[in-house]
Amino acid sequence: MAEEFEPKIVAFLCKWCSSAGSDLAGVSRMEYPANVVPIQVMCSGSISPLYVFSAFNKGADGVLVSGCHPGDCHYIKGNFYARRRLKMVKQLLEYIGLEPQRFQMSWVSAAEGTKYTQVIKDFVKELKPLGPQTKLRRTT
Amino acid sequence: MAKIEDLKEEAKKLLREGKVKYIIGYGVGGNGWTAVPVFIKKPEDVDGLIWDPTCVHNLARFLVDEKRRKAKEKQPDARPVGIIVKGCDSRAIVVLLQEKFIDRKDVYILGVSCEKAGVVDDKKLAKKLKEKKPKKIELGDNGQFIIDTDGGKVEVPVEELLAERCLECKANFPVIYDVLSGDKTKRAVDKPFGSLEKIEALSSEERWNFWRAELEKCIRCYACRSVCPMCYCDECVVDSINMAVAADTSAEEKAQKIKWIQRSSESSENFVYHLVRAIHLGGRCIDCGECERACPLDIPLRFLNKKLEKEAKDLFGYEAGFDSSLPALISCFKDDDPEDFIR
After folding, report:
1. Phi, psi of B71 (to 5 degrees)
2. Do A97 and B316 touch (CB under 8 A)?
3. Do A84 and B316 touch (CB under 8 A)?
4. Is the distance from CB of A137 to CB of A57 less than 8 angstroms?
5. CB contact under 8 A, A138 and B269
6. Considering only CB atoms, which chain A residues are within 8 Å of B333?
7. Does residue B252 carry a pLDDT above 90?
8. C-alpha angle with apex B281: B63 to B267, nearest 5 degrees?
């Protein structure tokens, strides 16, 4: 039997919430797919659209950006900026023909280890039928 | 009809009294009928200024160069620069003012209205005239272009020759000016984003094929970036060549500089380049169409920028280039911004 496709997800996690949330999932020994490469960032608002494009270019099958719930940002309003900016990124990626499921965003607080595992589980489930991301991947 | 004569008087006065350093405008090009940008320093040269439907260039770009030049001068000339602007160019100036890149007192804006018309698309013109060589193009009084060719006069309704962007223009008169020539009349536009419809109607896969075919052609000459009045960063993220180097920048720092994109043109990286450019222009592009005009491979770049313009309007109710006192699109937010895509 052919091996099942395992998508590679690059997750940009906010240091103050989602990253702590993923830690909580870890120390609580919750099970979730091992497809994620987490990258800790200081704030979801610090994520440049270029990070997202570059992740796809360097071989990610999916990109997740996760930050604090609105109103909970450590820097007061970083996640509001992120929300606006990344919505534009999402629309643009969809417009050039990338599958919309490949770029996702979530709000995960430091206490939501369960939600984090759920987000990853859902993301992986959605990516599997799509197969590898070849559109923006560098070939050389 | 906007008369350049009105502006010539003003331009002469400005230069004679030394109120402006020089005036950026349009003059007659080498072929005798298309406009080229000219820089006028002496009052007697003002007669060389022209205004006709071949004035396609966005002269606001030269304000960026002017600022760079001024920064290098030991004793900078504090006088403003005079500039002739169309509707779209004036919106570019508004965005530059909004981003505090230039100061209002650094420019003296001589506005000309496109008077319900706009500029001609040279490809459409060549197609229309077939073999005939144009000698002069004028805007007639009844919404037609009067083209003087070597085979006699030809009259064509403006809609047939106007550049795509002019057909979707939001305001074909300057929104900011010190002196204005012509009326502030707007041509009715049914669908300001009509040109996007045929791409948006395609399926995801078809859109991908369309963009891949277009962007594969890109040779990354960066002409679109060079001509864009909004692309004014000293250090551009897409190539490491123009990294801002100070006296204390060490060799290690230079070597460690992140190279987000390789310099050779590779299809996937062409995508990254154009996506980055599009997103950087999201909520800033004023649709002057210069990128598309400058592109040697005729990539329809306008469709990328126009799409984000549409999203900015639909999602956030934001239109670039009308009010320089507003914060820029991505440097502000609303509590009720769309959130449906977030888990």
Report:
1. -65, -25
2. no
3. yes
4. yes
5. yes
6. 77, 80-81, 83-84
7. no
8. 115
Average pLDDT of the residues in B51-76: 91
Which amino acid is located at B46 in the chain? Answer: V
pLDDT along chain A (140 residues), means of 10: 86 95 95 95 94 94 95 93 94 94 95 96 95 89
Query: What confidence tens digit (pLDDT) does each residue in B320-337 have?
Result: 999 999 999 989 999 999
Out of A80, A92, A98, the one facing B308 most closely (by C-beta) is A92
What tokens does B144 get? 């037609």
Question: Which ipTM did the prediction report?
Answer: 0.93
Q: Tell me the domain boundaries of chain B.
A: 190-343
Domains and CATH numbers, chain A: 9-130 (3.40.50)
- Residues of A in Cβ contact (< 8 Å) with B337: 80, 83-84, 87
Q: Given pLDDT bands bounded at 50, 70 and 90, which one contains residue B242?
A: low
Mean pLDDT, range B131-150, rounded to an integer: 85
CA distances from B243 to A53, B68, B246, B258, B278 (A): 21, 15, 10, 10, 21
Cβ-contact B35, B70 below 8 angstroms: no
pLDDT tens per residue, range B270-323: 999 999 999 999 999 999 999 999 999 999 999 999 999 999 999 999 999 999
Element (H, E) at A12: strand A9-14
Among B261, B279, B283, beta carbon nearest to A89: B279
Task: Decide if B279 and A70 are in contact by the 8 Å CB cutoff.
Answer: no
The pairing of strands B81-85 and B23-28 is parallel
Please report which confidence band the pLDDT of residue B176 belongs to, taking 50, 70 and 90 as the band edges: very high
**Which stretches of chain B are assigned E, i.e. beta strand?**
23-28, 35-40, 81-85, 107-112, 134-139, 144-149, 152-157, 179-181
Q: Which two tokens stand for residue B340?
A: 């449906």
- Judged by CB atoms closer than 8 Å, whether chains meet at B337 and A84 is answered as yes
Please give the structure tokens belonging to residue B260.
Answer: 């987000």
Q: Which two tokens stand for residue A79?
A: 């996640």
**Residues in A touching B308 (Cβ below 8 Å):** 88, 91-92
What's the pTM? 0.91
Q: Strand ranges (DSSP E) for B130-238? A: 134-139, 144-149, 152-157, 179-181
Are residues B269 and A119, on separate chains, in Cβ contact within 8 Å? no
Quick one: pLDDT band at residue B67, thresholds 50, 70, 90? very high
Best A17, A80, A81, A92 member to test B by mutation, with max B CBs in 10 Å, is A92
Q: How far apart are CA B231 and CA B225, in angstroms?
A: 6
Residue B154's beta-bridge partner residues?
B147
